[in-house]
Amino acid sequence: VPPADKMRALAPLLRSGSKIVAIGRNYKAHAKELGNAVPSAPFFFLKPTSAYITDGMAIEVPPACTELHHEVELGVVIGRGGRDIAPGEAMDHVTGYVLALDMTARSLQEEAKKAGLPWTAAKGYDTFCPVSAFIDKGRLPDPQNVRLWLSVNGETRQDGTTADMIFPIPQLIAAVSSVMTLQTGDLILTGTPAGVGPVRAGDTVECGLADGLVRMSFPVVQRRASRL
Amino acid sequence: VPPADKMRALAPLLRSGSKIVAIGRNYKAHAKELGNAVPSAPFFFLKPTSAYITDGMAIEVPPACTELHHEVELGVVIGRGGRDIAPGEAMDHVTGYVLALDMTARSLQEEAKKAGLPWTAAKGYDTFCPVSAFIDKGRLPDPQNVRLWLSVNGETRQDGTTADMIFPIPQLIAAVSSVMTLQTGDLILTGTPAGVGPVRAGDTVECGLADGLVRMSFPVVQRRASRL
Ligand SMILES: [Mg+2]
Ligand SMILES: [Mg+2]
Ligand SMILES: [Mg+2]
User: Fold this and answer.
1) Chain B interface with A: residues with Cβ < 8 Å
2) Predicted ipTM?
């Protein structure tokens, strides 16, 4: 569990939020690189808020995971909650953004997909949701046209733009809120551009948003097996 | 969203909890009735806390759902959080229980299973987690030997005992906390006994725990389509 002082960098909104809703396959090039169909409607899964870490903290490789992947994503922070939010009103419910990583135990996810089982463990380990400090809405006036990038040990792996989302933010908010009520502090991860790939213990992951608006760095470490 | 006064029946613990972790196929007879293999280790998925309702409130049938199923389950409320909790210490982390329903859009879940997609929407709609008022640990001294039952329109559908769990509560807590840190107020749904089946708008669902320790009732209504 992250030290309290590091987590203070997160906005109160995020700290009090109760869910992380992550959109799958929202960039064509990423859907294709994993051999998946491009979805005809948004689909999503939950990550637990216990997975939050922030800049400088360690990303852990779970013992059972033979391939841990990075996915850099724009995170949308809900200010005013709602249910059945219309796309045309969706942006009024947004209070700001974070840069986020949707860390994924790809090996476990592939097993789950084959067996028709939930993605939850593959997406939900501790440290699997690194996020930046809160970015107020006013500081990102055009969220649908912003660069996001990620490097591993200094080598660029992902370099995309939110302009390439299949379903833009208002559609995502409408889709999620047609299933589950969105609440203040909830986070929506909007999907990842192409270039996902493995990280290993000892690696350093860096990522950024726009031109220097966010830049953060995470060491990767091995998580020890539990006493199970 | 539930009216605030009704939700006051829930313990502060539950209201401040940030996750609901639900165990799949933890009773042999239930795994078999849906044609699934009996698992060799516990697996689980997340439900959002926005799905909580309590006694007397309406369970909604989502527009996209052609078959909504009831699953009556014992819920375990975490008092003291922890990570990599050993089975032998697990019960020290439990502060009490609730009777719960893991409402499931079975038609959507079957589609998700076939497509290798997350179970999240199928398990996560608003009103999909009815729970009783909090039951202090001391009032349920033998949680592994308690009757739970459910009826629809007065006809018994599920009548099982927690003695039939494949993995008992300490193993569930150990398994979940080896993936994600458990926090105060988190709820673990421990799986459902045999007898799951459909409910429709107009039905009344009743369920109970032990001999009159809990008894609650929920009307089933149709949720209107969103403006999507
Ligand atoms: Mg992702
Ligand atoms: Mg899931
Ligand atoms: Mg269940």
Assistant:
1) 1, 18-19, 21, 24, 43-51, 62, 81, 83-84, 86-87, 112-114, 116-121, 124-126, 174-175, 177-183, 226-228
2) 0.94
